[in-house]
Every structure is written in structure tokens, then in C-alpha cells.
């Protein structure tokens, strides 16, 4: 069960900050801006803006991502903020870049993914209630949102790949290892690494989540260590 808590950002942290470079870690679910967080791992656009405001005029920004995705609008806001940042940006998908967290890395000039990490793409989802008119409007909104996502994927395709193929993969909810992702997108595969599995309910709404991403006690121990380190890092900002 999630714990309600004041807006904090322990899973959005900055490390190795110098006068010219910094490492930005986005390790959590992407959620809309609110006054409260139901889970301390959530990452809001305001969190990212607050951090970027402190990292003005850097020459290099390394972005490390391990996220199940989340809110489409929050994810696009984070993508656009990072895209506007003038630093030379390198994104690393440490463990999982799923759903909207598959969009955010492409704000960088270069994207790196370990061979054993995952990139997941799918059509945008929306929970809504209402009459037939409301539902038709929701479907139209989803089409517009999807077109924006497709434009970002299209700008980052590997040579020889057509966007129609990506659209079919989105329809099917497709999970790609780092090695597989490099066949479809302009990403560079790097050496496999071990990263704590994400403790999140978000994976439950996906249909094809790989079994290797299922939460384990060992993963929780690793995640607690990451949380502690990130909290210490934030004290230095």
C-alpha cells in the first residue's frame, strides 16, 4: 500500500555535480503535479524543473532512467523540459524505460541501454467515465496523444526502420531488451548491469511485463539502499 506523504523527490536525485556536469537520476513512476505524493518514489514535472533550475549552464547532463512510466502529460512535460536544456545530454536506461519513460530518454542527444535492460512501447492508456460522447472524445484525445509519441519515436528510428512497424509494436505492447531496442531505435547498447527491480503497482496494468521484473525481497533491499543514497545526495544540493 502506498503511503501518503509531502511532496519530496528522493528518487529524483543529482549526483557527481560539478561546475560543468551532473548526473540526474529518474528512478520512479511519472506522475502529474500535485501537492502530495502517494508514493515517495513518484517523479513529477515540478520535481524535474526544480532540479534543472539548479543545474543551469552545465555543459554535460547525464540522465539515468529506471521507470515504469506513468502519466502521459507529465512524461511529455519532462521530455520537453529536458529537450530544452542546453547541455549536451546523454540518457542511460538503467533497468526499465517503459511507456512514457520510453519517451523521456529521447530528449537526450545520445541514448544508451544495457543489453539486459528493457524498453517498452505501447499505445497510450486512459481511464475515463461518462456517456458515449465522453468516450468518443476520450478516444480522439488518445489519438492526438499517440501521434505526438509517434513523432518522437519517428525522429529516433534506426536506419531502415519504418514508423509503421513501431506503430504495430505499440498496438501489441512490446517489451524490448537493450539489444532488441537497438534494432529499432537510434540507441547504443552497452554492457549489461544489475539494477534493483522497481517496486511499483504500475507493472500490473501492463499485459506483457517480463517475469524478470517481478519484485523480489532482494530487489527491495537494493531499492532501500538507492533511496538512502539519493536522500544523502539531495542534502548536498
Structure description:
With 237 residues, this protein is α/β, with parallel strands linked by helices. 34% of the residues lie in helices and 21% in strands. It contains 6 helices and 10 strands, in the order ββββαβαβββααβαβα. The strands form 2 sheets. Strands 2, 3, 5, 6, 7, 8, 9 and 10 form an 8-stranded mixed sheet that branches. It has a two-stranded antiparallel ribbon with strand order 1-4. Helix 2 links the parallel strand 5 and strand 6.
- What is the average per-residue confidence, as pLDDT, rounded to a whole number? 83
Report Rg.
17 Å
What percentage of residues falls in helices of 4 or more residues?
A: 25-40%
What fraction of residues sit in β-strands? 15-25%
Q: Helix-strand pattern, N to C?
A: EEEEHEHEEEHHEHEH
Structural class: alpha/beta
- Uncertain residue segments: 1-10, 216-222, 225-237
Principal-axis shape: globular
Number of strands: 10
User: Main sheet?
Assistant: 8 strands, mixed
Helix segment tally: 6
| C-alpha end-to-end distance | 30 Å
Descriptive keywords:
eight-stranded mixed β-sheet; disordered N terminus; disordered C terminus; two-stranded antiparallel ribbon; 237 residues; alpha/beta
What's a concise summary of this model?
This protein is 34% helix and 21% strand. It has 6 helices and 10 strands. 37% of the residues are buried.
Topology:
Elements: E1 5-6, E2 12-15, E3 21-26, E4 36-37, H1 45-53, E5 60-67, H2 72-84, E6 88-98, E7 110-114, E8 118-121, H3 132-154, H4 163-172, E9 174-177, H5 178-184, E10 188-190, H6 217-235
Parallel strand pairs: 3-5, 5-6, 6-7, 6-8, 7-10
Antiparallel strand pairs: 1-4, 2-3, 8-9
Amino acid at each position: 500500500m502506498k503511503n501518503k506523504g509531502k511532496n519530496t523527490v528522493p528518487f529524483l536525485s543529482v549526483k557527481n555535480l560539478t561546475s560543468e556536469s551532473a548526473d540526474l537520476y529518474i528512478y520512479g513512476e511519472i506522475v502529474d503535479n500535485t501537492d502530495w505524493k502517494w508514493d515517495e518514489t513518484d517523479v513529477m514535472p515540478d520535481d524535474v524543473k526544480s532540479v534543472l533550475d539548479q543545474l543551469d549552464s552545465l555543459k554535460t547532463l547525464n540522465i539515468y532512467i529506471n521507470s515504469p512510466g506513468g502519466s502521459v502529460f507529465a512524461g511529455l512535460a519532462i521530455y520537453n523540459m529536458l529537450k530544452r536544456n542546453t547541455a549536451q545530454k546523454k540518457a542511460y536506461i538503467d533497468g526499465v524505460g517503459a511507456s512514457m519513460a520510453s519517451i523521456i530518454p529521447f530528449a537526450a542527444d545520445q541514448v544508451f541501454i544495457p543489453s539486459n535492460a528493457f524498453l517498452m512501447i505501447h499505445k497510450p492508456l486512459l481511464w475515463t467515465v461518462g456517456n458515449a460522447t465522453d468516450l468518443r472524445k476520450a478516444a480522439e484525445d488518445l489519438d492526438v496523444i499517440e501521434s505526438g509519441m509517434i513523432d518522437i519515436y519517428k525522429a529516433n528510428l534506426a536506419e531502415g526502420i519504418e514508423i509503421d512497424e513501431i506503430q504495430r509494436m505499440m498496438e501489441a505492447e512490446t517489451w524490448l531488451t537493450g539489444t532488441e531496442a537497438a534494432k529499432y531505435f537510434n540507441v547504443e547498447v552497452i554492457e549489461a548491469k544489475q539494477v534493483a527491480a522497481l517496486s511499483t503497482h504500475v507493472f500490473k496494468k501492463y499485459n506483457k511485463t517480463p517475469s524478470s521484473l517481478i519484485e523480489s525481497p532482494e530487489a527491495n533491499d537494493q531499492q532501500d539502499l538507492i533511496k538512502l543514497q539519493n536522500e544523502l545526495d539531495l542534502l548536498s544540493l
